Inverse folding.
């Protein structure tokens, strides 16, 4: 009897909402700090990696492009990452490797990459993890909407390198 009751309770529990479609901007607020982050992302077909465009608003707003893999990436010095959009010649830029992921938050690089990625059908990111080549292909957004929303959350505009923030008055 108890097992039937338990089964009934489980079947009536609300299902978790489905994840948003790829490249949909989602904003989260940290309940403890009040800091917000807005991100849009896509997974590889096998969900072994994800590519994220993210705006973090803690003090200075910062937009980064990140690739995270299920296996993780080792912490290392900055090194080249190639981003190829729709099979075109890759954009080779140095990215940070703080551990677990790789990211680029340079304003010029973020501007170049988000502009290239914004209407892509396919995005391939390739780098090295130690001596091993890591390559992942993601569905592109096809439209700039989600990426534009992330950029706007940090005061950036698609295709425009943001001006440095003015230092606080003393």
């Amino acid at each position: 009897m108890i097992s039937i009751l338990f089964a009934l309770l489980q079947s009536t529990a609300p299902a978790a909402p489905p994840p948003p479609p790829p490249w949909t901007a989602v904003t989260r607020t940290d309940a403890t700090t009040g800091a917000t982050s807005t991100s849009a992302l896509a997974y590889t077909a096998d969900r072994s990696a994800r590519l994220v465009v993210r705006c973090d608003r803690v003090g200075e707003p910062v937009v980064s492009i990140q690739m995270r893999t299920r296996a993780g990436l080792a912490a290392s010095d900055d090194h080249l990452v190639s981003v190829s959009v729709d099979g075109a010649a890759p954009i080779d830029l140095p990215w940070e490797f703080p551990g677990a992921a790789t990211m680029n938050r340079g304003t010029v690089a973020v501007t170049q990459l988000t502009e290239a990625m914004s209407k892509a059908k396919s995005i391939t990111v390739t780098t090295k993890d130690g001596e091993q080549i890591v390559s992942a292909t993601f569905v592109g957004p096809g439209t700039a909407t989600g990426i534009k929303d992330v950029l706007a959350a940090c005061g950036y505009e698609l295709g425009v390198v943001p001006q440095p923030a003015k230092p606080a008055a003393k």
